[in-house]
């Protein structure tokens, strides 16, 4: 198994990409703290599914936009499993508003949940890795929109652009401590964050047509890459982004 004796925290781990990462990591032997902000029942079902498959998982209610909650979440992994090896900063939201429409409240919310969380999550995990003396890995679930403007979703793009620079700079700062930081940048993935698009057949048709591989990704296809990155088979990778987008960043076919 690729992640045996690996202690991992996944933020927003009870839905979409986070849930797929939890399930894939558990199958590979990881012990997981699932951070969640809502849907405690679904989280309990997920923990039961992990345990039924012979894995170890525990849930922690933590709001990633609060540094104290991030500390509580990391401490839960240390208390449960003796140390932390991998933090996956996955939790994220969108506003779907343009520059002219975005309110200060919306902007602050997106920045807190998408960028501040990754910043202080990385800081908290790095301090833990250094005090353990083990090194460690932070994987940020960014987006193709860390680099690619999306009109009508500007606060999201700005937050993911910040995550890109966080990963590059933190990766450089932390390299001497054997702490690595990697971004995973998915294109369009079939998860609840895209429920509006997925419910609109004409929007789906246009999107599928634009993607070189002709379809959205499944959450498990993002999770499989995260498992590879966390496995130690990617040990020379840091301060950079791995793009998983069906080719769309290189050019859309149908738009
Ligand atoms: N689905 C896509 O097409 C896509 C593409 C690129 C990047 N992403 C990124 O992937 C990540 C996961 O998104 P998803 O597609 O699985 O969507 P999702 O809505 O299914 O999952 C988002 C998760 O974040 C959690 N969350 C939100 N606010 C939180 C908070 N304050 N504290 C803790 N958790 C919080 C939600 O409860 C949920 O578990 C996000 O960072 C998103 O930006 C998604």
TrEMBL record:
<dbReference type="InterPro" id="IPR020904">
    <property type="entry name" value="Sc_DH/Rdtase_CS"/>
</dbReference>
<dbReference type="Pfam" id="PF13561">
    <property type="entry name" value="adh_short_C2"/>
</dbReference>
<dbReference type="GO" id="GO:0047936">
    <property type="term" value="F:glucose 1-dehydrogenase [NAD(P)+] activity"/>
</dbReference>
<protein>
    <submittedName>
        <fullName>Glucose 1-dehydrogenase</fullName>
        <ecNumber>1.1.1.47</ecNumber>
    </submittedName>
</protein>
<dbReference type="InterPro" id="IPR036291">
    <property type="entry name" value="NAD(P)-bd_dom_sf"/>
</dbReference>
<dbReference type="InterPro" id="IPR002347">
    <property type="entry name" value="SDR_fam"/>
</dbReference>
<keyword id="KW-0560">Oxidoreductase</keyword>
<comment type="similarity">
    <text>Belongs to the short-chain dehydrogenases/reductases (SDR) family.</text>
</comment>
